[in-house]
Design a protein that fits this description.
Strand order of the largest sheet: 1-2-3
Number of strands: 3
Radius of gyration: 20 Å
Largest sheet: 3 strands, mixed
Length: about 200
């Protein structure tokens, strides 16, 4: 809140930790401003001073912050953020982009029905973080990209290339490598002996 209130044109700001239906937590900023801005602008401004996990997943523009009869911020009535897809939609052009849209829709969705709706609305120029992605979801996305495309996907590349168009270009340029699943070495038992650390 302190950093956002220093941004030119922002009059009021409230930042909350909220939880998704799955239990995952995310940060949401509610902002009253006197001028128009893009969420990528705010994200870039905050990234200069804050680590990634402290940057809100959602920025909700408000006319005014709701108050209780006592004049305190009424956090209960602040709306849950909706998933906003980009205003200009560009459809995926090749198989890699189509696969990435599928991956994004599964990771960013609340349920299976929502995932199928997202598949038809996520464009290749949309920003993963502006659609509700956060550091935990980046980890999941990187793992799934590695499995689906057999490429090494460092987390930093997703932060640098938050759009499908850029990610697809990175995947095409990356050297192929074999995704290896961890082998199950322990035999199945009813219970296992504790390690010294567990004891």
């Amino acid at each position: 809140e302190s950093r956002l209130s220093n941004y030119p044109g922002i009059k009021e700001v409230v930042v909350l930790a909220r939880a998704e239906d799955s239990g995952d937590k995310y940060i949401c900023a509610y902002v009253v401003s006197v001028r128009e801005y893009g969420t990528s602008e705010l994200r870039e401004f905050l990234s200069k001073e804050l680590p990634d996990y402290m940057i809100p997943s959602y920025f909700v523009k408000m006319e005014k912050i709701p108050l209780t009869p006592n004049g305190k911020i009424d956090r209960e009535t602040l709306p849950a953020p909706g998933l906003k897809v980009g205003e200009s939609y560009t459809a995926p052009g090749d198989e890699i982009e189509r696969k990435l849209v599928k991956l994004w829709s599964k990771i960013l969705s609340k349920d299976v029905l929502h995932a199928s709706q997202l598949q038809t609305s996520i464009g290749i120029d949309d920003n993963f973080f502006e659609l509700g992605g956060h550091s935990l979801k980046v980890t999941i996305l990187a793992s799934r990209i590695e499995k689906a495309f057999n490429v090494k996907m460092p987390l930093s590349e997703i932060f640098k290339n938050p759009g499908i168009r850029e990610l697809a270009a990175y995947i095409k340029a990356a050297a192929q490598w074999k995704y290896e699943q961890i082998e199950e070495l322990a035999e199945e038992k009813e219970y296992y002996v504790l390690s010294s650390a567990q004891k």
